[in-house]
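To whoever picks this up:

The nightly regression suite flagged Irp2 as changed. Nothing in the input moved, so I suspect the structure step. Input below, exactly as stored in the fixture:
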Amino acid sequence: MVPQRIVFLDALPLTANGKIDYQALKRRHTPEAENPAEADLPQGDIEKQVAALWQQLLSTGNVTRETDFFQQGGDSLLATRLTGQPSSGRL
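Regenerated output under the current build:
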């Protein structure tokens, strides 16, 4: 197996237990996070608000229309928090 690319970091992200946070590494260095196509960016007010919520919950950079919530580190607990946000008046 040969890596497709090599990314140099000043420090590895750590979990609260001091172990390497592999999910955070995946979220930081996905191709869409580096250079999303303009057509893939959220369109309209609702999509932009949902993307902002995703960015906040997932602590990630760019969110596109093709971004998979679970591949970006989301889980069922974060999804529950996400579904509670629209009723709080943010959408």
